[in-house]
Amino acid sequence: MTAPGIYEHVVGADEAGDRIDKLLGTLEFLPSRSAAAKLLEEDFVRVNGTIVTKRYAVRSGDRITVEVPPWDRGDLEPEDIPLDIHYEDEDMIVLSKQAGLVVHPAQGHWTGTLVHALLAHSDKLGTLAGEDRPGIVHRLDKDTTGLMMVAKNDHSQAALSEAIKIRSIDRRYVTLVHGYIAPDTGLIDAPIARDSRDRMRMAVSDHEAAKQAVTTFRVLERFMAGARDDGYTLVECKLYTGRTHQIRVHMAYINHPVVGDQVYGKRNAKSDRGLERQFLHAYRLELEQPITGAQIALRDPIPEDLARILRALEPDSMGRTEAGDETMAEILPPRP
To answer: Which stretches of the chain are DSSP H helices?
Structure first.
């Protein structure tokens, strides 16, 4: 469940006719349809001020109000899952999240998450994100790897969340995308919302519910096209907002989808070089320690499965950019 509080949603024309439990299960503040049904059964949901059943068919313009009560943390049990911790003090942790690890409990992933691992690692974690997300400040997708911050108390959690909001934390990702990107730098300023045709996906949208999303990028290296692909570009992306799937959606929007992306990509095993997860890694994090103000600067080279892809592409390299020369030593791990 999400953080306790009151949440609202105005039904759009594309949602009209849906059962309310189905609709609520697709919204970001609820993890599943079953969670929505439970809240409906316990009269925590109102439509235009009136309690409805889970079979209610929503109408365009309906104002849905959802009261999320405190979540029972007793359902969460610590699990002995290895953590790759790069930094830890009394206020925060910075770890490198492995591929395949879901950050917090959600539909289909009620156990075995990063949250369960954190509970086994520390009995001091921030509570501001809700009882099911102790310590969580921001998320990485299940198959995105790299550096991620965790708060060990409410003070640091609030400070880190505010630092992300005002964009004072430097978060950078490296991604390999399909195709040749000609300019060395670029900016993508395109709002993102839930895809109206597939509620499990996000999309660039001009819908009133869309949220501002800004990504900048620098080209690091380009690779020639082959018989079975249209070439590749290695890119460093910097986030100025933190929308769901932001880099993946933005790169697909400019027709350079992330290699291996099974949702927004080409989903072609040969042109994806056999990679079955997105080539996306949070390799750089720079921030001030939220309580002491000390400067923290961390680098995390890409995992070996991604490194193998780059090594295989070396014969097709068209040369690195100046930015690539500056950063590749930080991105590529030593050869095994």
So the answer is: 20-26, 33-41, 114-121, 154-165, 246-253, 304-313, 322-331
